[in-house]
Amino acid sequence: MLQRSSLYSAIILACLSLNVFAVDEVTALQGVTVLGTKPVNTSAGQVDQYIATTADSATKTRTPLKKIPQSVQVVPKKLMDDQQVQSVGEALQNVSGVVPNHIAIIPAWESTLVRGFAAEHLQDGSNLNYNTGDRESTINIERIEVLKGPNAVLYGGNSGTPTGGAVNLVSKLPSAQKATKVGITVGSHGVVKPTFDINQPLSENVQLRVTGEYTRSKSPIERLKRETYNLNPTLKINFNDKTALVLQGKTSRWKGQDYQGLPATGTIAGDFKINRHLFVGNSDLPDSTSELDSVTATLDHQWNDRWSFSTKVRKANSEFDEKGQTLVGADGFVANKPSAGSVWGMTNVNLYQQQEDVSVTAELKREFTTPKTQTHLVLGAEHSTLDDDGFMDTDGFAAVDLTNPTFSLPYTDPNTAFRWSGKVANKTSGVYAQAQHSMHDRVHLLGGAKLAKVQVGYADNFGADDHTQKTKTLPRAGVVIDLNKQVSAFTSYSEGLRGVGWANYSDTPQPIESKQKELGFKFGANQKLSGSLAAFEIERNHTTIPDPATGGLTSLPNGSERSKGVELDMVWQPTANFSLTGSYANTDAVYTKAAGTIPAGNQLAGVPEHSGRVWGNYQFKQGRAKGFSMGAGVYAQSATMLTGSNDFKAPAFHKFDMKFGYETKHFETALTVKNVTNKQYFERFNYFGGRVAPGSDRAIYFSAALKF
Question: How far is CA 302 from CA 23, 57, 144, 244, 368, in A?
């Protein structure tokens, strides 16, 4: 890890040394602050306040959203800034059908759901696997593009292609205009968060951008503390007007206690009550850690107006070391039920995993145009490897009454004969082709296919040595028809195929397969209204579920699931001062066959039937109040099942947020209140399959930044 950090430092120092020789050649342009009066062009596409008109992630070409036959939602930086979001998860609450990670959970696995299923987090199109390190930071994000459903044609690598959806975190890139922003956020629960964003042209053809953030925080939960940081250097070299190389580095760290949530009995069920802010575990519990280091190189070459080529190579190392004391109940490690009365067992647990992945992608693009048609062709190939080694060990035992807890079991790193250690090795490869074709600028066709191969090798210290592979042609097809200038109708079909991560498997793991059918409408009027309404159905097979025979300690790869529903996303901007965004999802996600002790028809865990968000922001642009802004919003969701057994259900909840801000050319500040009414509620917490955690209490944040 130290070698990787040293590499980033060397890159930055080398770039700065270039500046010594190039500074006289650079003409610095004066900064211009546009307070939302005109559309803003960024490296990721044009944005008008909250309305993004294009997306890159869905087709790997810059395509107008209304021409893409798939639900794609964009969360622009402007919206994240107006809401003063403190995490990626909070930003994702703006998108229909998305259930993000709980902020208190250790970044040792990815729990984000899209349309009821686990989603992949991508960084500029590259899979982040477990999404380790300081994954909630937004300091280096230009926008978030959410692709709903499988998108196998364009995305693979590491474990394979998304089968539920993809959350693509689009990074900030260097530009030719010098700019620096330094800020700090302080707030409730001891939050201290200094940030910086430095864009420095080194010469006419070389640009450097470095972003970074450090966060220290406490929590309403007893004894819970967090410390994170991340550093993101990016160097762009324009060899000429046709060829550019982008080098991106990332070092990200997370440190804090392993919070395991609370059992359902004593919180949302049962005849006794557990302190909602209780931290379950001994006071001597050491910190858990999560780390990520990555380097990505992207080379783009434009041969002429019609032909272009790009290739991307990414190397990443990640690991997490989870040290905890977990409850054991009548339902095993799920622990939503006490062993007796209000008493649970407790044992030390150490879960450690390290991952190494390498991915290579190459693409050739061609554009054909005639007076009445336009065609974009993408031809690509990819290959990747992911080695995932880890172990899980438990040791020691004590009983604890959670209504009057005394945590007498000291923490020691387990090292027993019952240790599960194993390795999962995924190899993925594929070749793909995609064509976009527009006729008379009213009918927009999208078609593609990918010949994908996924190999999964699994071995553990108890003698398992299982290997499986699958080669499959994965299609994608869709059409958009412009009914008039304001409304378009679309329909599409797509498939996905991916490998699995490390787990203690009771049977040979299988690649997960999925299929999605979707239809809907996209609408927009006079740049003031934009949105989409879609109905969908996704089927998935060979999903991993907890094995009831071991209390969830091992997993079975034989789940089959189905999700269907309706989603609405919209933005309304009647004036240059006011923006309103809203989303709603109705989702029905169930098991379609019996799995373990879970009968067919049971609802999937963590998926609310109803969920949605509304947010409005008003910005004063004239008069004495010029530069001031105010915003407010509400997020709400219905009840969710904690586990696939459907024994317990986290109740519905809603919460209000508000913000007051002020911005000038060189200064900005904001005062934000989260959960204004201090609503007390519990959320599902995905620990050993599903417990609960208290929702965030009222929190007040103050932020300020200088821009120069």
Answer: 28, 19, 26, 9, 15
Which residue, among 402, 254, 279, 252, has the nearest Cα to 340 in the 3D structure? 402
Q: What percent of the chain has pLDDT over 70?
A: 91
In one letter, which amino acid is 574? P
Q: How many CB atoms lie within 10 A of CB 503?
A: 24
- Does the pLDDT at position 60 exceed 80? yes
Query: Three-state SS for 664?
Result: coil
Q: Do 668 and 707 contact (CB within 8 A), yes or no?
A: yes
Task: Cite the DSSP H helix spans in 84-136.
Answer: 88-92
346-350-352 Cα angle (round to 5)? 155
Calculated CA dihedral for residues 609, 500, 168, 56, nearest 10 degrees: -110
Alpha carbon distances (Å) from 366 to 303, 304, 381, 431: 10, 10, 15, 16
pLDDT of 701 higher than 50: yes
- pLDDT of 67-106, one tens digit each? 999 999 999 999 999 999 999 999 999 999 999 999 999 9
Q: How far apart, in Å, are the Cα atoms of 240 and each of 19, 234, 246? A: 19, 18, 13
pLDDT computed for residue 200 by the predictor? 95
- What are the phi and psi torsion angles at 134 (to 5°)? -85, 75
Q: Is the pLDDT of residue 46 over 50?
A: yes
DSSP-assigned states of every residue in 440-488: TTTEEEEEEEEEEEEEEEEEETTS-EEEEEEEEEEEEEEEEEESSSSEE
Tell me the β-bridge partners of 117.
114
Question: What pLDDT digit, counting tens, does each position of 465-521 carry?
Answer: 788 888 888 899 999 999 998 999 999 999 888 766 666 677 777 778 889 999 999
| Six-digit token string for 133 | 């390190």
pTM of the model: 0.90
Residues 6 or more apart from 669 whose CB is under 8 A from it? Answer: 661, 662, 663, 702, 703, 704, 705
- DSSP 8-state code for residue 160: B
